[in-house]
Amino acid sequence: MHNVRYSAKRLAEIVGATPKQVEGALGRKDGFGPEDLRALREKLRRPPEPFPARVQLFLNFKGGTGKTSISSSYAYRLAERGYRVLMIDLDSQGHATKCLGEEGGRFERTLHDVLIRKVPLEEVTVHTGMPGLDLVPANLAMSTIDLALMPLAGREFRLRNALQGFATRHDFVILDAPPSFGLLNLNALMAANDLVIPVLADFLSYDGLRLLFETIQPRGARRAPHALRRLPPRHRRPAVHQVRAGVERGLTDLRLRRGLEGGDGHRRGPAGDPAPRAARDRRGRRRGGSVTCARPSTPTFRS
Ligand SMILES: Nc1ncnc2c1ncn2[C@@H]1O[C@H](COP(=O)(O)OP(=O)(O)OP(=O)(O)O)[C@@H](O)[C@H]1O
Ligand SMILES: [Mg+2]
């Protein structure tokens, strides 16, 4: 992150000014870095738009769906836009830490110390190369956290308690969760105002989504994210049902296949069509259809 460089045009886009205004305010034409963003905002009097403080969780029990890539880029972009952001890496892989330019292994303390030993969050927070973007790093020490949380009182609320009063220091707290069930992710769910679920359009990602909905649903409004909590109690459960039904409809209506032979190739074709699946796919393609994406309501995909 320390070698990130901006052109005057890009800085101008970010702060909503012209390149000439940027060059005038910073007194040079190039060689701009992340540290120039704050000075530029102050000189041009362009503070970020006010936004209520949020804790936002990126979670999917399925691995490799883009949680870390999206959440760390998002945290960086928020900081670029002038917000004070705290990224908390919950994953012992330490990938969010790495994405923000730090090496998890060199830190002695992580969220483990905060949740288990009640070390104040500020003491494990480090600054990154982007002004306004702070990080609670993760490393292998995080791998035993579920076990360590198990016997503790209030074990599901420790992260929420640790984050109390965060809004005085940060506008956004971004949580990058590991792909697992367990007490740590339960803590994250309890602490979050918003839940972002990156999904891949494939069968197993969809199944991960189902597991996630099943985990959230029985816990009701108390554990539901902000949007659901704002609903009157009698609407909350139907809302969870509606979201789930919508996702199920959308995903079952769209079957993505990896190629002519792979993916769903083993599924039976429509009754009465003796042509092998690959031949039918080629036929579909000649008619202008896509080989990777089709609605199951079309005869070719009815099974
Ligand atoms: N927009 C993208 N386009 C292409 N590949 C991507 C994109 N975003 C992420 N990837 C790749 O997908 C893989 C998984 O991404 P990432 O590590 O962010 O997922 P994750 O959900 O955090 O994984 P895990 O569950 O292991 O924590 C990585 O190899 C990453 O480089
Ligand atoms: Mg990850």
Task: Write a brief caption for the model.
With 303 residues, the chain is an alpha/beta fold. 42% of the residues lie in helices and 9% in strands.
Task: Describe the structure in your own words.
The protein has helices at residues 8-15, 19-26, 35-44, 67-80, 95-99, 111-117, 121-124, 145-149, 158-162, 183-191, 203-216, 220-223, 226-229, 233-252, 277-286; strands at residues 54-58, 85-89, 126-127, 133-136, 172-176, 194-196, 255-256, 293-294. Residues 253-303 have low confidence and may be disordered. Helix 1 packs across helix 2 (19-26) and helix 2 (19-26) crosses helix 3 (35-44). It contains 15 helices and eight strands. Strands 3-4-2-5-1-6 form a six-stranded mixed sheet, sandwiched between helices. Strands 7-8 form a two-stranded antiparallel sheet. The chain folds into three domains: 8-44, no CATH class; 54-198, Rossmann fold; 261-302, no CATH class. Strand 3 (126-127) and strand 4 form a beta hairpin. The protein is globular. The longest helix has 20 residues, at 233-252. The protein starts with 7 loop residues before the first helix and ends in a 9-residue tail after the last strand. The chain is of the alpha/beta class. 42% of the residues lie in helices and 9% in strands. Bound molecules: adenosine-5'-triphosphate and magnesium ion. Residues 63-69, 91, 95, 178-179 line the site of adenosine-5'-triphosphate (ATP).
